[in-house]
Amino acid sequence: MKLIILALCTGFLTGFIFALLKLPIPAPGALPGIVGIIGIYAGFKVYEKLAPWIAAMFK
After folding, report:
1. Average pLDDT, stretch 17-29?
2. Where are the domains of the chain?
3. What predicted TM-score, i.e. pTM, was given to this entire model?
4. CA angle 7-48-8, nearest 5°?
């Protein structure tokens, strides 16, 4: 939970600073951003499941 709160605070502060400096938001639109994050997470989880199999192929 601490990590989630820290990530939220960091993101909030970053967004605030970008708005203050009148810079474009440093993220894609809401839906594409969310889908991208889900894709990154899914790819990581699939790799975790396949890593032993991939390692065995190269022995």
Report:
1. 85
2. 2-57
3. 0.55
4. 5
